[in-house]
Design a protein that fits this description.
This protein has about 120 residues and is mainly α. Helices cover about 60% and strands about 5% of the residues. The protein is elongated and about 50 Å long.
Length: about 120
């Protein structure tokens, strides 16, 4: 198992607030399962989740790739809430779409969220 020590070239920035536990639980993964995917000991995951160990930027990126979401989602989106759960489902679904499907979905979303000029001129 690879060690997650501080290397001289590793970015030292730490993220004090995150939703790692919520994302892990949202995915229905145990600490052991996530640790195996991240190639760390499960206690590392537990210590990060409880705040006993800081979440470093480099490891955040690795976790984001494992979850299949942007790093910002782990920092800003709590999938345990109703709104965060919807966002989490959308982020995960987006990655399963082909580029063409993503383009079609974006067109549909834009059409739903763009004000209708005719309606506002009536």
């Amino acid at each position: 198992m690879a060690s997650e020590t501080n290397h001289p070239d590793e970015e030292p920035f730490e993220h004090p607030d995150h939703f790692l536990r919520e994302w892990r639980e949202f995915m229905n993964w145990s600490q052991e399962e996530l640790a195996a995917m991240a190639d760390v000991h499960y206690t590392t995951i537990g210590r990060i989740e409880t705040g006993k160990r800081k979440l470093k930027t480099q490891f955040l990126g690795k976790l984001a790739r494992i979850f299949g979401v942007p790093s910002s989602a782990i920092l800003e989106t709590n999938p345990a809430t109703e709104s965060g759960g919807r966002t989490a489902h959308m982020l995960l679904a987006w990655n399963k779409l082909t580029a063409s499907q993503q383009d079609d979905l974006l067109k549909m979303v834009r059409s739903l969220t763009t004000p209708n000029d005719k309606a506002s001129n009536s």
